[in-house]
Amino acid sequence: MPLFQWLLRRGRLFQQHRLPQRVLFWTVWLLTLLVTHTTLIHYIEKLRWFDALWLTLTTVVTVGYGDLFPKTDAGRWCTIILLYGGSIFILGNLVGEFFQLLSSHFQRRLHGKWSYHTMHEHVIIIGAPANNPVRYLERLIDELRRHRDWENRPIVVISNRFEQFPSELVDRKVRWINGVGTSQTNLTAAGASAAHAVILVAANSTDADSDSYTLDTIDRLRSQGMQGLIVAECVKEPNRERMKRFGASGVVRVMHGYPEAIARAVLAPGAEVVLEGLFSSEGEECERIAVSGRYAWRDVLIALADAGIGTALACETSEGQIVLSPVGRTLELRALFVVMDDAGSQRKGDVPALLAASRLG
């Protein structure tokens, strides 16, 4: 009875060990018994090393082809004690613990509790919009991966908006950490110091507190030694310069209906300034100018630039199709989309005559 109680107590203590330690323990024990049995069978039964190993393995997995078997009493006792009495039991425990370990790892990944600290040159997205976060992240991730240099780059999302990571993002092979970016533990688990780029997404366009969260996160990232790009959404205009002083590479307005804008800031740093200019009425604007005739796009660009009116970005054909920068093409046009400042805007009525006078039609 004392021996049984001692074994029971030791078994309970062993079950309290971490699962990876238990798997390692059973693996070491199994290998020890297999090597011992193979060695003894080699010498006792006078079998080749490979034959001894073959006999050991076919016995422990209970296949038993019958082509080899112990012929001496000593060899049979070795098999009874080491394999029947030990290895088969240990193998069963090892298989059970191993699948339990796999299940545990899967559950930890599914619930955002895994660590990706060994990653490098990856992208980290911190935060998600309060409304439709899954759809936003889908569009943002898809836009990033459309770029030929980014299609295979790993992506980690840090967000506490999900109880379980959505299947739409799992299917895109996105990793998830359940938490916030102001946690040093979460940033370390995401491998932030070795990341190629970090994108900070605000909860909404009106919550000024999210700027404080963003500033804190930027500071933590740079304090960790992160040298990559940091692109952040900013709610309040006065905080834009503060974010840049803290280490942000690019700062954009909150445009959750257009995640492609912040993606551009990562894929082509500085592009966010151009895009924001197109969405704003401050400074240069994109205006539609009605024209008529057949024009070579190269000639249109030169004529507008030489006249100091602006830069043509796109056109509308006579069939109503909008074509973005039709380089090298000649088209029958209905309208031009031109970026111009206030001075150019005052002269936009001159564009049809300018084109006609230049004999472009």
Which shape, going by the Cα principal axes?
elongated
How many angstroms does the end-to-end distance come to?
106 Å
Instruction: Please state how the strands of the largest beta sheet are arranged side by side.
Output: 3-2-1-4-5-6
Structural Rg: 34 Å
Instruction: Give start-end ranges of low-pLDDT stretches.
Output: 3-8, 10-17
What fraction of residues sit in β-strands? Answer: 15-25%
Sheet with the most strands, sense and barrel status: 6 strands, parallel
In CATH, the homologous superfamily of the largest domain goes by the name NAD(P)-binding Rossmann-like Domain
Order of helices and strands: HHHHEHEHEHEHEHEHHEHEEEHH
Number of self-contained structural domains: 3
CATH overall fold name of the largest domain: Rossmann fold
Q: Report the structural category.
A: alpha/beta
* Total beta-strand segments: 10
The top level CATH class name of the largest domain: Alpha Beta
- Helix count? 14
Helix content: 40-55%
Overall average pLDDT: 83
Gross CATH architecture of the largest domain: 3-Layer(aba) Sandwich
